[in-house]
Amino acid sequence: MADLLVEADYRGHYSHGMNRLDMYVKDVKSGTCDGKAVPKILNETPATAWVDGQNGMGAVVGNFCMNLAIRKAKEVGVGWVAAKGSNHFGIAGMYTLQAIKEGMLGMSFTNTSPFLAPTRSKEAGLGTNPLSLGAPGKEGDSFVLDMATTAVAVGKVEIAKRKGLSIPDGWAQDKDGCSTTDTHKALSEGSCLMPLGGPEINSGYKGYGLACLVEIFCGILAGATYGPNVRKWGNTSRVADLGQCFVAINPQCFAPGFGERLSDLMDTMRNLQPTDPSKPVLVAGDPEKQHMAAVDRAGGVRYVPNQLETCEHLSKKLGVKPMKGLKK
To answer: What is the mean pLDDT of residues 305-319?
Structure first.
């Protein structure tokens, strides 16, 4: 869990790092998540597995399932694992990075609490349903896509609220189904996030379709709770029973030179003429690499005061030593 939180903040995904610690603690302390659970394989073939997370912490279930998928991919070329009975697993990219370290392509998916209003709906019917694809290029230059299928992850709205900022039009809609830039309205009862693409005229139905794809791989395939039946965000009165999916693919089972071709493709994209010379073309994973380099130069991760105050309060509540800043 510590690795997950640190990796998220180090990569610049502050919405899924220390910002999520309080939620994980509440889930365990309330008994709606079993901090000691061990995932169990319910059905298995050489290439597939169906897993019961047994209401364990999402990071534990995710590590178990991706390691299982990687082992299968090494043996038969592909490993596909679907899990039920899980909880919030942090950044989806954490698990595809595991596959990359083993020279594999990795994919990870999870359903979530209902936040997304399907195109033409005033109500939430699906979660942010993130997906990730990681693929190893040459010399550590890998492709790492990690994205929500909503216009934005709910944590990004929470971070904007922490900073007292408004959000872009097309991220969220209020209880009446109208787009809003007010974080308080966006996070209030009855509000929803918009699908990737925003309103229908901007092809938001494509994001809605991708969210359904994730739901089919997770809630439906794994036999977990799905769609609007998943517990609401922040509700600790019942278990989450999230569905998740993890895939590992061994590129050695396909055309030779995968890493070289991938690196060539990424470099080709980066070298395309930009519309703004000060903003070069990037590929998935580049913004995270830039953020990690900035963290290294700064000597540590920088947090907004509100986040530090939240961590201070949590440490006092738990009776543990507070997080201390590094000396410059």
So the answer is: 86
Q: What pLDDT digit, counting tens, does each position of 74-107 carry?
A: 999 999 999 999 999 999 999 999 999 999 999 9
40: number of Cβ within 10 Å: 14
Per DSSP, what are the bridge partners of residue 83?
51, 244
- Sign of dihedral through CA atoms 252, 61, 157, 315? negative
Q: Distance between CA atoms of 52 and 40, rounded to whole angstroms?
A: 5
> Residue 130: beta bridge partners?
none
Spell out the residues 6+ positions from residue 13 whose beta carbon is closer than 8 angstroms to its own: 91, 93, 146, 155, 288
Pairwise CA distance, residues 184 & 170, whole Å? 15
Round to whole Å and give the CA distance between 79 and 45.
Answer: 10
Rounded to whole angstroms, how far apart are CA atoms 271 and 149? 28
d(CA 196, CA 219): 20
Q: How does residue 178 score in pLDDT terms, banded at 50, 70 and 90?
A: very high
Longest dimension (CA), the chain: 55
Contact indicator for 17, 94 with CB cutoff of 8 Å: no
Query: Could you tell me the pTM of the whole model?
Result: 0.92
3-state secondary structure of 286: helix
Written as six digits, the tokens of 137 are: 């290029």
Burial of 3 (0-12, 13-18, 19+ CB in 10 A): exposed
Q: In this structure, what DSSP letter does residue 218 have?
A: I
> Which pLDDT band holds residue 29 (cuts at 50, 70, 90)?
confident
Percent of the chain residues past pLDDT 90, beyond the cut:
80
Residue type, 258: F
Place of tokens 């169990």: 40
- 320 vs 99, 313, 316, 317, 323, CA distance in Å? 34, 10, 6, 8, 9
Q: Which residue has the higher pLDDT, 325 or 218?
A: 218
